[in-house]
Amino acid sequence: MPWKNFFICEFFLLCLLLTSCIPKAQQTNPEKKIPLSSLSTDFNLFRKTVEEAHPGIYWYTSKKDIDAYFDSVYTSILKPVNDIDFYKLMMNVVAHLRCVHTSISLSQERERAAASNLKLLPFDVIVVNDKAYVLETFDSSLRRGFEIQTINELPIDQIVQKMLEIIPSDGYNTTNKYQLLNRGMFRRAYALLMPSSDSYKIDGTDSIGYFRSVKVKAIAPDFNRPPPTTEYPISWQLKDSIAILNLRSFQLNSGEFTIRVDPFFTQLHDRKIKGLIASQ
């Protein structure tokens, strides 16, 4: 079978595997547990399929290590769980194959039902150099540029690591994983992997370095995002011996950026202001 067709078939096969043994009515009821025998059957079917048909299963991990990993996962399935918990387990397993073309998903019906009950963080996140920052916020308690240290007391590095473990990528490349997180996946991954809550306690430092602890309310998936801001991308305030430079965006070419920011530094020079705070 041509590789392109193989990957297409593989994707749909994995989509179907997760719910192959779950009665239709059960797929939309998160309280229902899948019998242990059905979980074991589905996992063994998944394992047999990838071992026989996946062309790159041993490209980045030896057969010995893959076998040991599959065995450890199988022995960890000890009790009935609902379909979402089994889905999370299988996302880790699929990501362990280190193939960006191999993924798994819930049925469309179950995904819609699960999504309707999500309680999402009211902000988007960007992860840069092992640090997480608020990129866009829908809660006035937080501002862009806030560096997140913990969410509900759990350190942000542990949260990000859990997310990275469920995102497929070729080999040991993490670039795609971070790109997905930074393009809006963070909030939904958090809702999937972490305990649900009506509110979240966010600890961290604001854009001028002060520690803050903020409590924000969760938002629903159908939350209407406010229209994009039309605020000027560069503004400033001069307060006695302190200047505050607000940079809402770096989406300017170097020439335009220079034109916008030159007047600010001219005023700093003329007023002999030596204290500068850059803020988002």
**Whole-Å distance between the termini?**
52 Å
Q: Helical segment tally?
A: 8
Tell me the series of helices and strands, N- to C-terminal.
HHHHHEEEEHHEEEEHE
Major sheet characteristics: 6 strands, antiparallel
- Give unreliable regions as ranges: 1-13, 15-26
Work out the helicity level. Answer: 40-55%
Strand content: 15-25%
- Main structural class: alpha+beta
Provide a descriptive summary of the structure in words.
- The strands form 2 sheets. Strands 1, 2, 3, 4, 5 and 6 form a 6-stranded antiparallel sheet that branches. Strands 7-8-9 form a 3-stranded mixed sheet, covered by helices on one side.
- A hairpin with a 2-residue loop joins strand 7 and strand 8 (242-247).
- Helix 6 (156-164) crosses helix 7 (175-193).
- The chain has 8 helices and 9 strands.
- It is of the alpha+beta class and 280 residues long.
- It starts with a helix and ends with a strand.
- The chain has helices spanning 3-17, 36-53, 63-76, 83-96, 108-116, 156-164, 175-193, 254-271; strands spanning 123-128, 131-137, 147-151, 154-155, 199-205, 211-217, 234-239, 242-247, 275-279.
Short description:
The protein is of the alpha+beta class. The chain is built from eight helices and nine strands.
Question: Which helices and strands occur, and which strands form pairs?
Answer:
Layout: H1 3-17, H2 36-53, H3 63-76, H4 83-96, H5 108-116, E1 123-128, E2 131-137, E3 147-151, E4 154-155, H6 156-164, H7 175-193, E5 199-205, E6 211-217, E7 234-239, E8 242-247, H8 254-271, E9 275-279
Parallel strand pairs: 8-9
Antiparallel strand pairs: 1-2, 2-3, 3-4, 3-5, 5-6, 7-8
Helix pairs in contact: 6-7
